[in-house]
Amino acid sequence: MGALVRVVVIFTYVFSLLRISTGVDTITVNQLITDAETITSAGGSFELGFFSPANSKHRYLGIWYKKVSNRAVVWVANRENPLNDSSGVLKVTSQGILVVLDGANKTLWSSTSSRPAQDPNAQLLDSGNLVMKNGNDGNPENFLWQSFDYPCNTLLPGMKLGWNRVTGLDRYLSSWKSADDPSIGTFTYGIDPSGSPQIFVRNGSAVTFRSGPWNGIRFSGYPHFTPNPVYTYDFVLNEKEIYFIYYLVNSSLLSRLVLTPEGYAQRFTWIDEKGEWVQYSSVQKDDCDNYAICGANGICKIDQSPKCECMKGFRPKFQSNWDMADWSNGCVRSTPLDCQKGDGFVKLSGVKLPDTRTSWFNESLNLKECASLCLRNCSCTAYVNSNISGGGSGCLLWFDDLIDIREFAENGQEFYVRMSASESDAFSSTNSSSKKKQKHVIVISISITGIVLLILVLTWYMLKKMKQQLKRKGYMEHNSDGGETCEGQERLELPLFELATLLNATNNFSSDNKLGEGGFGPVYKGILEDGEEIAVKRLSKTSRQGLKEFKNEVESIAKLQHRNLVKLLGCCICGREKMLIYEYLPNKSLDLFIFDQIRGIVLDWPKRFLIINGIARGLLYLHQDSRLRIIHRDLKAENVLLDNDMNPKISDFGIARSFGGNETGASTTRVAGTLGYMSPEYASEGLYSTKSDVYSFGVLVLEIVSGKRNRGFSHPNHDLNLLGHAWTLYIEGGSSKFIDASIANTYNLSEVLRSINVGLLCVQRFPDDRPSMHSVVLMLSSEGALPQPKEPCFFTDRSMMEVNSSSGSHATITQLEAR
Ligand SMILES: *[C@@H]1O[C@H](CO)[C@@H](O)[C@H](O)[C@H]1NC(C)=O
Ligand SMILES: *[C@@H]1O[C@H](CO)[C@@H](O)[C@H](O)[C@H]1NC(C)=O
Ligand SMILES: *[C@@H]1O[C@H](CO)[C@@H](O)[C@H](O)[C@H]1NC(C)=O
Ligand SMILES: *[C@@H]1O[C@H](CO)[C@@H](O)[C@H](O)[C@H]1NC(C)=O
Ligand SMILES: *[C@@H]1O[C@H](CO)[C@@H](O)[C@H](O)[C@H]1NC(C)=O
Ligand SMILES: *[C@@H]1O[C@H](CO)[C@@H](O)[C@H](O)[C@H]1NC(C)=O
Ligand SMILES: *[C@@H]1O[C@H](CO)[C@@H](O)[C@H](O)[C@H]1NC(C)=O
Ligand SMILES: *[C@@H]1O[C@H](CO)[C@@H](O)[C@H](O)[C@H]1NC(C)=O
């Protein structure tokens, strides 16, 4: 190992002797930097040129520390497109764009520019920032481009980690695949702006570490952020920006923060005496830093065995799992909250504040106002000062389960957890005698009025109970078994769920378990006794659909079996309650990824192409391969769910229609579907067929490629909708401009162009022009030339959307037509 390191060091040293340093820090238009040349920043701190990582033959353009023998690369340009030889060159175009070209003048990487350039030139600053300037304009506000805005795995002093809220630019670190391969690995380190902003380390989409919110002094989860001899830090949060930044105390020190290929954010500092980089600190310290290790409402204590315990007033949700160190299901309240009775709070000290992604804060409230605000809102679960500096100010509220709490030996925070009145009394052990006296008085007066009230309430309650029993009997009249089984279920070829099971699994359909609102009514997450996770769709009682139609529908869906359709596990019909039970898909729906800049990165192009193909096959099955011909009528990103491996599954058959034999379509007077995805003939005339699903599929493909919603799309240069925009670029041969920036580094051009072409074929104005799903599947997988699409009717489409939305319809029109 030591020998290997030495060989590498010697190699890099010899290698650097062979280089010709141009001795300048600037590249002007059309000046070439070849593989053998480098440029050096004015103070001699950083060098830019081509390099190969330790055990790799590939060549990359990068920036590294110049002054030390182990030159640690801090930034890489063509990390996804390496050179195989030393033919690479770097140059600045007259538009002010940096390009890395290979021997055949093919562009392997290029920078971007949003402003016109005059006399552009690129300069390597002594901070390690490679900037594109107009002439001698050194004002950072005016830079055309800077490498600090496009970090790789290293955060250098003075670099912003976080968001420009005006432009939407998100600067985050992404790990190398391995020490030998700078291409994008699975880990990211960046700021999540939702709720009170926090830094997250993610593995793909899964959070592995959370910094906690900024508390005015440090991130709640970084107790070791204390004044130190190496660096100072700051966190900025305003309307324009959210970012974390650090500076070196003594600029002659070298220190950098790196996200390793294994997903650790570590600080390395150069120690001259040792001649090596030494790990100075690590963001992740111990097991308790693993995100949510103790589940909801659990608290992690590192010097205790077992590590996890429930917070005061909570007990394990599944005691037997908990005892076997499976803490993932977390804890639930020992006594449920009762907002009407008046709850109290219990103070927890020395901890890392729970996940604040769904929290709320206001900097101008004080702690007292904060407590009363929390008490007034029945879904509020905890509160705290949002800013602990200067004695404490501001108000931060939680509304959900409290997740990812740990105890710290020092620099932990205190916060207040809502408890039912009885529990909070038990814990806060009021020890003042005057309070006790008061209590006695209150107790006596309550007892007297209580007895009177009790008699009244009891009478009322018994009457009500009798009424309910009569009602329930009515429901069960024609049920042979009586008891818990519900009527009519025996005729369905589906597993039956009892109402009690579902009530138990979903915590009595608690709002905490609600996943969203589907076509029919709310959808809840549930966990069965055996631990299986399910999604329960509870049909709203106002649904016009009758029992018979509901059963027909369930039976037709139950017969569908395809890996790209969500699986129906069973149903439950109990009185007026009708419910469908589906498999639970943890990654939720496609829209959460493709329309989100952060999560969008998780879905790289290969995954998106698999998703496009999967949806196409699912739809083909509905249209053609299943026993019935089914038209989905509401295909959209929200209705494509993703399983653990990001496989797409079409869901929500709430308004699907099935047809026998040769029928291919029908018409309706009540148009149901979603604006932005409805084909013109369906939206305007109520005509639907398999080709209206094809249209929705086309819209979806264009959304997946572009990362933009069709509905609500706008462009600064024109008034076209997404389809019009795609079409215009296609005709101009500029389709590559249509591609989502999140997949800029991962896409395969021919697959993307093929997808755009297929998408445009699917959204053509006339149904007969659109391909069948059968042809779509073939076209997506073949290499052959594709037909040229006709112009989509995007102008009428936009005016139609306005007509529809002005008539008071929601984004999703979910009414069912009477059949
Ligand atoms: C390097 O070689 C690989 C495999 O032979 C090839 O796919 C790639 O396109 C080459 N890269 C360049 C820049 O020539
Ligand atoms: C690449 O471009 C340069 C300048 O535009 C030209 O001199 C050179 O011949 C080109 N090389 C190839 C292989 O096309
Ligand atoms: C990161 O996620 C991938 C895929 O889910 C998994 O295979 C891998 O083990 C994870 N890595 C770590 C270090 O947790
Ligand atoms: C910075 O560090 C250098 C070398 O360690 C030392 O000589 C110098 O005095 C330090 N400067 C300050 C301002 O502390
Ligand atoms: C915060 O609270 C203050 C005082 O109640 C109020 O004036 C202000 O609008 C609130 N700010 C936000 C963002 O809600
Ligand atoms: C409680 O707070 C949540 C989140 O801010 C809000 O959506 C809800 O309307 C509030 N409820 C009441 C009764 O104020
Ligand atoms: C936190 O409080 C301190 C002292 O009152 C104040 O100087 C600082 O600006 C506050 N920070 C934020 C983010 O409001
Ligand atoms: C309660 O108060 C009494 C006297 O007022 C004191 O002796 C006792 O230690 C207190 N108990 C607790 C638990 O603080």
Summarize the structure.
With 819 residues, the chain is α+β, with helices and mostly antiparallel strands. It is built from 16 helices and 48 strands. It folds into five domains: 18-150, Orthogonal Prism (Agglutinin, subunit A), CATH 2.90.10.10; 289-431, no CATH class; 432-477; 499-583, Phosphorylase Kinase, domain 1 (2-Layer Sandwich); 592-818, Transferase(Phosphotransferase), domain 1 (Orthogonal Bundle).
Oligomer: single chain
Mean pLDDT: 83
Give the class-level CATH name of the largest domain.
Answer: Mainly Alpha
How many H/I helical runs?
16
Using the alpha-carbon principal axes, give the shape.
Answer: flat
Q: Tally the structural domains.
A: 5
Helical/strand content category:
alpha+beta
- Widest sheet: strand order? 27-26-34-30-35-32-33-31
Which residue ranges are poorly predicted, with pLDDT under 50 across at least 5 consecutive positions?
Answer: 1-18, 429-434, 470-490, 795-819
Strand content: 25-35%
CATH architectural grouping of the largest domain: Orthogonal Bundle
Write structural notes for this entry.
It is a single chain. The protein is an alpha+beta fold and 819 residues long. It has 5 domains: 18-150, Bulb-type lectin domain (Agglutinin, subunit A, Orthogonal Prism), CATH 2.90.10.10; 289-431, no CATH class; 432-477; 499-583, Phosphorylase Kinase, domain 1; 592-818, Transferase(Phosphotransferase) domain 1 (Transferase(Phosphotransferase), domain 1), CATH 1.10.510.10. Helices cover 25% and strands 27% of the residues. The strands form 13 sheets. It has an 8-stranded mixed sheet. α12 (690-706) packs antiparallel against α14 (749-762). The chain is flat and about 95 Å long. Mean pLDDT is 83; it is low at 1-18, 429-434, 470-490 and 795-819. The site of one 2-acetamido-2-deoxy-beta-D-glucopyranose has 2 residues, from loops. Residues 362, 364-365 line the site of one 2-acetamido-2-deoxy-beta-D-glucopyranose. Belongs to the protein kinase superfamily. Ser/Thr protein kinase family. Residues 111-126 have a biased composition (Polar residues). Its EC number is 2.7.11.1. This is Receptor-like serine/threonine-protein kinase.
